[in-house]
What does this fold into?
Amino acid sequence: GDSVTQMEGPVTLSEEAFLTINCTYTATGYPSLFWYVQYPGEGLQLLLKATKADDKGSNKGFEATYRKETTSFHLEKGSVQVSDSAVYFCALRSSASKIIFGSGTRLSIRP
Amino acid sequence: DTAVSQTPKYLVTQMGNDKSIKCEQNLGHDTMYWYKQDSKKFLKIMFSYNNKELIINETVPNRFSPKSPDKAHLNLHINSLELGDSAVYFCASSLTLGGNTEAFFGQGTRLTVV
It folds into this structure.
């Protein structure tokens, strides 16, 4: 079945460092891909999305490009801030219309 | 003006009790979901409804019974609560069942069974 694999955390970086969180997927057809962020004690918020191959989603300095050839959707940010500390989830909308999530990556940013 | 709201936010109850969690969305979406998040933050879909009709039931024990009185509401009733039911339960909605639509999530209900 469809699935999402993302790098295990926790990831700890210093402020202004470059961030990459890897995400790969397995799916039939052409799923839509998402990154969600969960701040402590809150629900999930959509960070960005891409709906077809080579699309780039971007928001709040974060970017991810839909790479069909490598079935990947890696999240990047050029300069992280303390306020980016959260859990990040990669997800896809499957052919069965479910939204399937990866296991989440906890990100901590040191001042 | 919260888009997806669920109540209560916290629920502490004893094993064997029956409890309900309510969810409402004011986005005019057709599709609603329940997800369970365990202590390791893993999110698993439990149910999805489209226009009040059950679409997905992910091998959830039949102690869990969702009810959708209209397409803006999806409540979750749990009978005979067990310790393993302790988790955060999230309600979500999306414009439609398929396509490229994202889901909007509520703030979660932290259920603790003691």
